[in-house]
């Protein structure tokens, strides 16, 4: 029995991104592991530690028994506290320790995924994500690893892979969450529409409509009279949606047509990863 066909795209995307991360970090000297990323409080080492920890937990490894320092400003809730344990426990690991653990984890997890026999609907229970089908869990892992590959690339000044299979999965998950951002988080008025015109390696045009009941939906059909049209490049969109950057820092990369105040409220609430 082979891996279910609906799981394979996520596995392939995950593989491509995590192997790219391994290639990016394997030549780094000790000091380069300390370069800050756009993830608050996390260096390149910390991002890799997070990836290692997440995949070890997906393998069923026991979590480290570790007490966090009290002065970590970026640890603000239970989810960030949960993630930080796997990061902080590796903060003093050397470059060779990091690369060898990453490579070993990739080997173990890849073997595990090649032998995945469970049905896509099998329910996974995750401390942060809650209960969700295996198929969705693997999509989230592909999204997470691609997003962190981008964090590392920006920290090292090595851009790329903005149009890979992982990028497509990340885009789709971001768009699935966009109606909530606009209709609920930003409190957009009922019977309104918002257009996102995104250019670059992964270009797309999407319209979010808020109906008379305040429910949001997203589609590829254009709107003739949107309240706001946002025009930006794909990397800017993904950085905003992943909560990596504040609007004021990249305002020059976004063109806004329509209600400026409402546009600012939407962009302030744009992160779908919190």
Which structural traits does this protein have?
274 residues, alpha+beta, Nonspecific Lipid-transfer Protein, Chain A, five-stranded mixed sheet, two-stranded antiparallel ribbon, TIGR03083 family protein, DinB/YfiT-like, Maleyloyr_isom, MDMPI_metal-binding, metal ion binding
Detailed description of the structure:
The mean pLDDT is 95. The protein has a five-stranded mixed sheet with strand order 5-4-3-6-7. The chain has helices at residues 8-25, 44-58, 78-88, 95-114, 134-156, 165-185, 234-241, 260-268, and strands spanning 123-126, 130-133, 192-199, 204-210, 216-219, 228-233, 255-258. It has 274 residues and is an alpha+beta fold. Helix content is 46%, strand content 14%. α2 (44-58) packs across α3 (78-88). It folds into two domains: 8-157, Four Helix Bundle (Hemerythrin (Met), subunit A); 174-268, Nonspecific Lipid-transfer Protein, Chain A (2-Layer Sandwich). The protein has eight helices and seven strands. This is TIGR03083 family protein. InterPro entries: DinB/YfiT-like, Maleyloyr_isom, MDMPI_metal-binding. Residues 15-153 form the Mycothiol-dependent maleylpyruvate isomerase metal-binding domain.
